[in-house]
Description:
Elements: H1 14-21, H2 25-54, E1 73-79, E2 82-91, E3 94-102
Antiparallel strand pairs: 1-2, 2-3
Amino acid sequence: MSYEPPIPPQELPTDVVDTLGDYSPELLRHIARYAEELAEYQEREARLAENEENNQVEERPEDLPDDVPSKATITVKEINDNRYYYWQWREGDRVLSKYKGPVDSDN
């Protein structure tokens, strides 16, 4: 670990860099966790919206449960430092999820 402060990415606005510099390490870790979850959520929303727009009918995966629609995608959620696969799909304005199984740590 370096004794020099990290260099922020050029894409990060200066006001964000300045604001983050005033926060405690604990708060920064909470922000980092939230930012990662928010990025995953926004990516998932974009994928779901794109799938709805394309209205593609894909073959139903063999491991897809009967109560999960074929338009569902797989996402990873981290809970208590463990990672799990979930099926996720949109019904109207809601995003629904169903547990699939743990993420294999060998991957």
